[in-house]
């Protein structure tokens, strides 16, 4: 009698739908992942194809201060309807990540909604972003407006569409490498 050892789906795979935004603001491969729960809450993370995760970079610092007058760390929400949270558009910066080679990346909200929280744990332990980007290494949690919750995914890619984009990208890179060598 042979037992099959199938792994149960993770909490993320079971309760969240993955959405993607590729090449954020025209920056090649700077892909973001949005984990959308059935209760409308969205978690912003780096997609697996983001250069920070792909190129084995080390993180020097993470800064939630967007400008002199705006820090995502000052975000305070209260009550059942989460009043007081900063309202974000889809291209609102959430944080800046600086790597040890001084390459800097900006992570954007990707969706419109109210900022519920930022992940302060990654400030103390930046490696969480590299080791567990979809769970403990998330960037922020955003709550879209109720009336917009069904339409926030309009500009986003499904998992299949995202994998298509990544596959085409790697094919183009390989083709350009082979034409350079001939």
Automatic annotation (TrEMBL):
Pfam families: GCV_H
Protein name: Protein Abitram
Family annotation (SUPFAM superfamilies): Single hybrid motif
Signal peptide positions (record): none
Location of the protein in the cell: Cell projection, Dendrite; Cell projection, Growth cone; Cell projection, Lamellipodium; Nucleus speckle
Entry keywords, A to Z: Cell projection, Nucleus
Top-rank taxon, per record: Eukaryota
Family membership: Belongs to the ABITRAM family.
GO biological process, one term: regulation of filopodium assembly
Gene Ontology MF, one: actin monomer binding
GO terms under cellular component: dendrite; filopodium tip; growth cone; lamellipodium; nuclear speck
